[in-house]
Amino acid sequence: MSRLLVISPTLAASRDGKLFLDKKFVEGMRFYSDRWPGPVGCLLHERTGTFAFGQYYDPAELPFKVELLPEGRALGPREIAGYDTILCGGDGQAHLHLAETCRRTGQALVFVIENIDETRRQMVMLDRTRSWPRRARALASIQSGRRRRRQAFQAAGGIQANGHPAFAAYSPMNPDTMMFYDSRVSEDLLATDADMAARSGRLATGAPLRLMHSGRLEPLKGSQDLIPIARRLTARGIAFELDIFGTGSLEAEIAAGIAAHGLQGKVRLNGPVDFRTELMPFARTRADIYLSCHRQSDPSCTYLENMGCGLAVVGYANRMWAALCEVSGAGWTAPLGKPEALAEALAEAATDRARLAACCTAARDFAAAHSFEREFDRRIAHLQAVGRPGRGKTQSDRTLGEPVG
Prior knowledge:
Pfam families: Glyco_trans_1_4. GO terms for molecular function: transferase activity. With 405 residues, the protein is of the alpha/beta class. It contains 15 helices and 16 strands.
């Protein structure tokens, strides 16, 4: 019987015998527990206090074991003992040494990775809370981590790359690399044929475009571009509505922009809402386009989640959305950091309703082919294959430049 351990950087806390865990993380762990042919556990570093998108859980009611470690505690053979296959986050540097540990113990180690160095640098430079000395130190740390990550990934049993940029960057380091899409959209949340028909019928009437944007309202997410885009559309005479969901440091600035430019009848700040019961139903029935101002190339789950609701996506051509748009046919791209170009793409969508409807259909169909269930099943099959005794080459004799399996 194979035992699976998940080592994740996700936030975790405890209080009065209860665990405070990220809800999305728990959903994923439940799926591992349902599909994995053996016991499943996870190692998390404990933080203090609660955090957004979390809730309390009774450990006895979870189908997987949770072990909380003091923050900053290094992991070694003792912490991972008793498990056959280990899935470990590879974006940070704290656990890269486990590749050598697992090589010695014979345990199968698979790293999961989502960010490339370009994205890490973008995050540093777009973070307004960092002073220039702190930015310089962070950039130096990114540079120093490149060699360690390459060595660890070469020695690991496999890699699971989240999205196109990560796959392109890291698959040459390990022949057992697979690409997956991160999404919370289970098959029951996908837009129905009736939802799609209603949207297409409305678009055919020439009704105003219904745009939506969701997530953290932060400079890192490009939220500062929302009001300039709305102003540009207004100046072009494009009939539209824009619903914004979420909260963050730019919320007050966006609210002030709405008031200052007379956008109250077109742009609405809705605050944070529940993903499953409010956000997804709204996207399925009351929106046409997801407006993405994301400048970084990280594999935001937002793309697949909104595509699953049948929304076309208009976004900046970061490495992730540029590649995803090409393979899915689900929308439009615009040059990075040019809100006027995003507005022009939206104006084109408003004019070419037939293409917009086709993009909505392509978005839903692509997301359905990569639903939460399908992607997790693929990832579990990959983990099982990597952990199979005698599979392919040993961890210690893999080299760069070989075909990706």
